[in-house]
Design goal:
alpha+beta; about 50% helix; about 130 residues; two-stranded antiparallel ribbon; elongated; single chain; about 15% strand
């Protein structure tokens, strides 16, 4: 096989179809750049999340009221009863936490703004609040 003849034939084809060749090169370049950008954005997001998780420390524990699983699908805490202060005291007594620094409460509610002038709310909205 004559590699010189193959190279010559390829160059002739490229020179005859300059516009097609340049568009092909440009498309390949844009595709590679897009893949590099997507990978870089993913890596940056991953490192940001890892940094935030590391900032929580190794002694952070989050306990929520009983999560449910329906047919193997976890539905979260919807419809589960809330934890009470007695539950918090029982958890503190039964599990050896070196220190329990904060107990917070969280609730969800439905608000209707027909009478109140709340600017950015839909007239019938769902909201939640959390506090220490």
């Amino acid at each position: 096989m004559d590699y010189l003849a193959l190279l010559r034939s390829a160059l002739v084809a490229l020179l005859r179809n300059k516009m097609r060749s340049s568009l092909t090169v440009m498309g390949i370049t844009i595709g590679i750049a897009a893949v590099i950008c997507v990978v870089a954005i993913g890596k940056a997001g991953q490192s940001r999340v890892e940094q935030q998780m590391n900032n929580l420390g190794d002694n952070f524990v989050w306990i929520e009221a009983g999560g449910r699983a329906v047919n193997g699908v976890r539905t979260g805490t919807h419809g589960s009863p809330s934890l009470s202060m007695a539950d918090a005291a029982a958890i503190k007594n039964q599990i050896a936490f070196p220190q329990m620094s904060m107990i917070t409460s969280r609730s969800s509610m439905q608000i209707k703004t027909g009478l109140l002038p709340i600017a950015a709310c839909h007239p019938n909205s769902s909201t939640s609040s959390a506090g220490a």
